Amino acid sequence: MLTITRELHDAIVAHARADHPDEACGVVAGPAGTGRPERFIPMLNAARSPTFYEFDSGDLLKLYREMDDRDEEPVIVYHSHTATEAYPSRTDVSYASEPHAHYVLVSTADGTGPDDAFQFRSYRIVDGEITEEDVELVEAYQA
Fold first, then answer.
1. CA-based R_g, the chain, Å
2. What pTM value is reported for the model?
3. Is the peptide bond between 50 and the residue preceding it cis, with omega within 30 degrees of 0?
4. What is the tens place of the pLDDT at every residue in 30-77?
5. Cα distance between residue 105 and residue 99, in whole Å
6. Contact present, 101 and 77 (Cβ < 8 Å)
7. Within 13 A of 60's CA, how many CA atoms are on the CB side?
8. pLDDT tens digit string along 9-30?
9. What is the DSSP secondary-structure string of the chain?
10. CB of 42 closer than 8 Å to CB of 10
11. CB contact at 8 A, 40 and 24
12. Cα–Cα distance, 61 to 100 (Å, whole number)
């Protein structure tokens, strides 16, 4: 199960809506070994595409160095789908290289207004196998 604060959930959704009609992408880092998403890191979709996302390799290298310096790891890797449901594509599965990460997809296919419907779903993707997991929204993490 992915446990995430409402604030982080809303930030991911806002990023997906802001970048629509292109796919949005980013990471939520957390303290290494905790599995707790804490630091929202929106990234630029280097592909600038409504059907595909790609992290800029330089930005990604900088991010991983920064996370290493802060003793963090990617807890959530997220992106949006602008015309399809929030389910990993074959390309998404091929890019899933973090076996401990939650892969969050947000679909903005139904609209981009503040009251429009959207999907927010989380998956584990390990060795090409997709497993959907529940998402629990909390106001704050328990100590």
1. 14
2. 0.93
3. no
4. 999 999 999 999 999 999 999 999 999 999 999 999 999 999 999 999
5. 16
6. yes
7. 9
8. 999 999 999 999 999 999 999 9
9. -EEEEHHHHHHHHHHHHHHTTSPPEEEEEEETTT----EEEEE-BTT--SS---B-HHHHHHHHHHHHHTTEEEEEEEEEESSS-SS--HHHHHH---TTSEEEEEE-TT--STTS--EEEEEEEETTEEEEE-EEEESS---
10. no
11. no
12. 19
Type of residue found at 55? F
Residue 30 vs residues 11, 33, 74, 132, 135: alpha-carbon distances, Å: 16, 8, 6, 21, 17
Contact yes or no for 5/138 (Cβ under 8 A): yes
- Asked if pLDDT for residue 133 goes beyond 80, the answer is yes
Q: Which residue type is seen at 102? A: H
Tokens of 4: 């995430």
CB 85 within 8 A of CB 119: yes
What φ, ψ does residue 32 adopt, rounded to 5°?
Answer: -55, 135
The structure tokens 């280097």 sit at 46
